[in-house]
Structures are given as structure tokens and as C-alpha cells.
Amino acid sequence: MRILFLFILMSMIWGCKQTQKVESQHPQKNERWFFWSVDWHPHKDQFVVGGSNDTFFKLLSSNSFQELESYPYKGTITQTKWHPTKDKLAISVQDGKSKSAILNLNDTEIVELDSITNAGARALGWNRTGDLLAVGDNDGFVTIFDETGCFLRKINTNQKGLMDLDWHPGKNLIATVGEKITLYDYELDRLKTIEDRKENILMLCVNWHPNGKLFVTGDYGDIENQYPPLLQFWTYDGQRQKSIEESKAEFRNIKWSSDGNLLATTSEKLRIWNKDGDLVAEDISENLLWGLDWNKDGSKLVATDNQGKIIFWDKNLTKLKELNY
Fold first, then answer.
1. 173-177 and 164-167 as β-strands: parallel, antiparallel, unpaired?
2. Rounded CA separation 205/9 (Å)
3. What is the pTM of this model?
């Protein structure tokens, strides 16, 4: 399996970065889009997509499917995460062209997040109250900021790079994944490492169940060496409950519905599972699916692919709409 980890040494700059203004503008036509991420607004009929276009990330209406804003931002936007209660957005970026940042949509002001390696980041998330933001970078560190973007703490997970992270729904506990799983307790400043497989298989995504009693991971697998991609269920303290060998391609994203009854996964298909890990429904995709999110009430899903499509389904996987960029 070929897995590229970026190793770049940098000097760390602590503190808050002075804010800058960003002007929104309309995109040029015929651009090639590769959407890594999609994130449904928790309180509005809007969603945001980001990717590797190196020019914009986009805010769209989930009712009219019309583009509302395009924000210029250089680099590959790997993840976007809405603040749980406020109209602001955290974005993670890799390739060194821009920094990960917090965008306030009310005044289009960006706060750049310092103290993150120039190799960039792919893991990102707010805690349940929105007063803490965690960024997991490509050198294996988790950096914690306050809501305004001021540096608080940096944790070495002893991994080569972090692909995803998720805060526990009821505690300040972070699950991170790379070549292994780490659980970091912010209040106790304590790190726990969980080995996954004996083989060096990269995990790409992690998501806590809304009840906080378990979390799920999805990995890359290694088809050439006959290691299938696995969807795995873990207890709160990291005991493996179940491993599922269903996908023919890597699990790029996994998301529980808000009520915790259904788990959606993206790979070569969009799949829906129940809380016991039984497959409920699936829909094959023309291209590999990457970004994924539910709307607030769990009635709809949106996913992005690696060829510039944004696709909507209902929870029964009836396709509702497809946008092409």
C-alpha cells in the first residue's frame, strides 16, 4: 500500500493571528472542482463545499440549490465544520498555500490558525459547546484553539499524520485516526492509543454515536495485499465490537444521523447502516464519493464525489438532486 505522509519541520508561532477581510465573488466558468468536504448548516437551509480547486469554497442553498456565495481561498480545503450555535465556519487546509482558519459569515472576516505545520491539516472539529476547536495536522499533532482562534494547547499523538477527528457528544474527549486510534481527554490532558490491525492500514474517518457510548472508524484497506477496507465499531474505551468487510473501496467519510438510528458511509457506494451495523440500503455511484453529511432532522443526505458532483438523497437513498461543477 502506498501511503504518503508529509514531513515538514517548521517553527511554531503561538497565539492569535490578526484577522483579514475576504471579499466574496462569482466563480469563473468551466473550472474543475474536486470536492473533499460538504457540511450542512446546523440551523439554516444551507451547506458549504470545499475542495482542491484552489480558488473558492462555496456556500449554497439546500432549498433552491443555488449558489449563495463563493469565498476565495488558496489551497486544498480538506474539511469544513460549522460552529454548533453561531454563523461561523472552521476550515482545514493542506498544501501550504493558505492556513487553516475560522470564517465569520456575518462579516466575511477570517482568523488564520497559527501553530499548525506547513504540511497542513485534514482533521477538524468543534466540541459540543463550540468553545473549543481541534485541528489534527499532517505531522500527527492535535492543536486546540478557543472559539476566537487563540492557541490553547498542542498534543503529539505520535502518529505520522491525522486523517480525521471527532469530539465526544457529551465530553471534551477527542477520537483521532491515522495509522492508529488515539483518544485524548482534554480535561485530564491524557492520551490513550488503540492499535487497529497488525498491518499498517490508514484509517480515514471517525464518528462518535450521538449517545456517546461508541464510535465508528472507516479505513483505506489495501486491496493489492488483500486487506479489505473495514468499517469498525468501537466501545467508548476503545474495545472493538464489530468489523464489517463490505466496501470495495476506501471509506472516505462516515456520519451518524442526529437521532443515532442510521449511519451513512461513502466509498464506491453510498451506504446506510443501522446502529447494530446491519446494511439497510445502498446506492452505487459513478465516481468515488468523498464528502458526506446529513441535514439536521436526518431526512436528507448530501455527498460529493471526486469529479465535481454534489448529490442529494432522502434517507431511503432515493436520489433527489445532482449538481455538476
1. antiparallel
2. 25
3. 0.89
